[in-house]
Design goal:
The protein is an alpha/beta fold. The chain has helices at about 5-15, 75-100, 120-125, 135-150, 175-180, and strands at about 30-40, 45-55, 55-65, 110-115, 155. It has a 5-stranded mixed sheet with strand order 3-2-1-4-5, covered by helices on one side.
Length: about 190
């Protein structure tokens, strides 16, 4: 089946869906990041997927092929975490500025990043690299220092609950339905 037929079929089947937003936003920006290591169709480059939420409302998402070839799964996840972190900081300052100008109140939003790779999370939290991860020492140090200085949270989320999983690889219909439900697509 051609790509255009698949896209038309998808659009026809999802024309009644849309994002549902609530007025409850909380005071945190929650992000999910994921990476698929070595996408063969994409010349062995990793694919990074990120969803960003203000409270429970999806406000930003992206899927992109990385510029550099990752040497390991952990390496591709660290690239995804770095991209996610930079995106979250940008959105934090943008949202805080909007709240200050529109609502005339200062709100400090915290950042919570969710990742499904234990090794990448441990590297970020401890800042300690080994010979196997020495090639990404700058990324590790940058994330470690900034997460600690700014008191941001990075935590483990299983792949089954990772909302950015569908942005990095093909998923089953059930996984797609569950993920859409979790991001308030109705």
């Amino acid at each position: 089946m051609s790509s255009s037929k698949i896209i038309i079929r998808y659009l026809k089947g999802t024309k009644g869906l849309g994002l549902c937003y609530t007025s409850e936003y909380g005071t945190f920006i929650k992000a999910f990041c994921d990476a698929s290591w070595r996408d063969r169709k994409n010349k062995e480059k990793s694919i990074t997927g990120i969803t960003t939420h203000l409270g429970s409302c999806l406000i930003s998402w992206m899927s992109k092929s990385e510029d550099n070839t990752a040497l390991s799964t952990c390496d591709s996840e660290m690239n995804a975490l770095l991209t996610c972190y930079k995106r979250c900081v940008y959105l934090k300052y943008l949202i805080e500025e909007l709240f200050a100008r529109v609502y005339h109140k200062n709100v400090n939003f915290n950042i919570k990043i969710n990742c499904d790779n234990q090794s990448a999370i441990t590297l970020c939290q401890t800042g300690v690299t080994s010979l196997k991860s020495n090639h990404i020492i700058r990324t590790v140090n940058f994330l470690h220092e900034n997460l600690i200085v700014n008191n941001y949270t990075i935590s483990f989320t299983p792949s089954s609950d990772n909302l950015s999983d569908l942005l990095t690889k093909a998923v089953s219909k059930d996984k797609l339905r569950n993920t859409l439900k979790m991001i308030n697509v109705v």
